[in-house]
Automatic annotation (TrEMBL):
Cofactors, names only: FAD
Family, as annotated: Belongs to the class-I pyridine nucleotide-disulfide oxidoreductase family.
Protein name in UniProt: Mercuric reductase
Organism of origin: Hyphomicrobium denitrificans 1NES1
Residues the record lists as binding FAD: 53, 141-143
Domain FAD/NAD(P)-binding: residue ranges: 8-320
Length: 473
């Protein structure tokens, strides 16, 4: 017989989404129970955002050494100590881990049960010898890497985000299936750390981002020696000794490497939850929720990757606020993703928020205006020899901001101003009057805003008005 425990809030899953809800609920005085079968912190801390950005930081440092000559500095070619690089990655995880630890959450008043949980009824979940009856149940079990249906894949050793950061030796040639953000980031990281890299992508690289900036990023990746196989269909994969071969339809020779990384998407973790016992409906994408993140069982909420998107840690944190307002304060808060930014942390970074040009034209037709500015015209970018990319702003013909894309160094920082502008429904003239420090890369935002108004400001009628006012004076 399982021990019965009663509580206000029961959270299943201690990744970014679950921890945010558990911490908020406990700090608001709700009796909270948290189930986690694996590592506290979930994918983001252990297998995703944190280790990938730590690895990228090491690879960027290697690139900076190689590129020192552009500043008149002599430097020998960088020596890569791959085990030391991976030790750096593990150390970063270890430094952040206490914030997500069992000890911290127990200190907040959360009862942490280190076990998998499943529904035992509409109001109950059980696991680890405990049955929990809760007023509100929160599903936050995250996602796992998709294993694509490719002939031979089940007979080949492969890596996912859950295993690649455990490598002890650098891959000689890393084959990556998937050209989305994870695939592209890992491709550049391992290439800069000395591996040969090939990406296989069924469509085009980074299909959700603005094509013109993806074209610029593609050129940067190719210049670094990353082999890009776009628009291809994989016929099969084969393992022979220490080699893995990927055969493509229409190409006579397979491409051979030492390691295979799967980065072809994510799937929600639902298999052990017994959702039907909880009266919770699911779809192919994940747990079905409404705009308030309620499931078909009104006592149960779901958030994060398990609902099928958007698959970002910052989206999960935002959703946690929506869940807390609904579940605890009973406020009808709804998720709104119109100003949700995302970043691919390559070098240069690619960041986006709001509508793309294609989406905006589908909605507004010829009322859409596109304004651009290049980092080649930004003094700080020139001083730092980092002029790749630029900014593209999508507005209506009156200057209302609909979307923004930035390609360049620190694009993930620069996009935040545009996320705020869209959230607050600002027009571009709000940025033209903004005083920005010089020289900064952020000035490109004011540059592009001013460029929108320049054709009207410097047209014939303003010139005539100025001449008239000067004559009258």
């Amino acid at each position: 017989m399982s021990k019965l425990l009663r509580c206000d809030v029961c959270v299943v899953g201690a990744g970014s989404a679950g921890l945010s809800v558990a911490a908020g609920a406990a700090m608001l005085g709700a009796h909270t129970v948290l189930f986690e079968r694996g590592e506290m912190g979930g994918d983001c801390l252990n297998y995703g955002c944190v280790p990938s950005k730590a690895l990228l930081a090491a690879s960027h440092a290697a690139r900076n050494v190689r590129a020192a000559a552009r500043f008149g500095l002599g430097a020998p070619d960088v020596r890569i100590d791959f085990p030391a690089v991976m030790a750096h990655v593990r150390d970063v995880i270890a430094r952040i881990a206490p914030h997500d630890s069992v000890e911290r959450f127990e200190g907040l008043g959360v009862r942490v049960i280190k076990a998998a949980a499943r529904f035992a009824g509409p109001k109950e979940v059980e696991g680890g010898g405990v049955r929990v009856r809760a007023k509100r149940i929160i599903i936050a079990t995250g996602s796992a890497a998709v294993v694509p249906q490719i002939r031979g894949i089940d007979l080949v050793p492969f890596l996912t985000n859950e295993s690649i950061f455990s490598l002890s030796a650098r891959p000689d040639h890393l084959l990556i299936i998937g050209g989305g953000p994870i695939g592209v980031e890992m491709a550049q990281a391992f290439r800069r750390l000395g591996s040969s890299v090939t990406i296989f992508q069924r469509s085009r690289l980074l299909p959700k981002d603005e094509p013109e900036f993806v074209d610029l990023l593609r050129a940067e990746l190719a210049a670094e020696g990353i082999a890009l196989q776009e628009g291809v269909e994989i016929a099969n994969v084969v393992s022979s000794g220490d080699e893995i071969s990927v055969a493509l339809h229409g190409q006579p020779q397979p491409i051979t490497g030492s390691h295979l990384l799967l980065a072809a998407g994510r799937r929600p973790r639902l298999e052990e939850l017994d959702l039907q016992k909880g009266g919770v409906r699911r779809t192919e994408k994940g747990v079905a929720v409404d705009a308030r993140l309620r499931t078909s069982n009104r006592r149960v909420y779901a958030l994060g990757d398990v609902i099928g998107g958007p698959l970002f840690t910052h989206a999960a944190s935002y959703q946690a606020g929506i869940v807390i307002r609904n579940a605890l304060f009973r406020l009808p808060a709804k998720a709104d993703y119109r100003a949700l930014p995302w970043v691919t942390y390559t070098d240069p970074e690619l960041a986006h928020v709001g509508l793309s040009e294609a989406q905006a034209r589908e909605l507004l037709g010829d009322r859409v205006r596109v304004t651009r500015a290049d980092f080649a015209d930004n003094d700080r970018a020139q001083a730092e020899r980092e002029i790749a990319g630029g900014i593209k702003i999508i507005t209506d013909n009156k200057g209302a901001i609909l979307g923004a894309t930035v390609l360049g160094s620190h694009a993930g920082e620069l996009i935040q101003l545009w996320a705020l502008a869209i959230t607050r429904k600002l027009k571009l003239n709000a940025l033209t009057s903004l005083i920005m420090p010089y020289p900064t890369r952020a000035e490109i935002s004011k540059t592009v805003a001013s460029a929108f108004y320049a054709p009207k400001l410097f047209s014939l009628w303003p010139k005539r008005l100025v001449r008239l006012l000067l004559w009258l004076s």
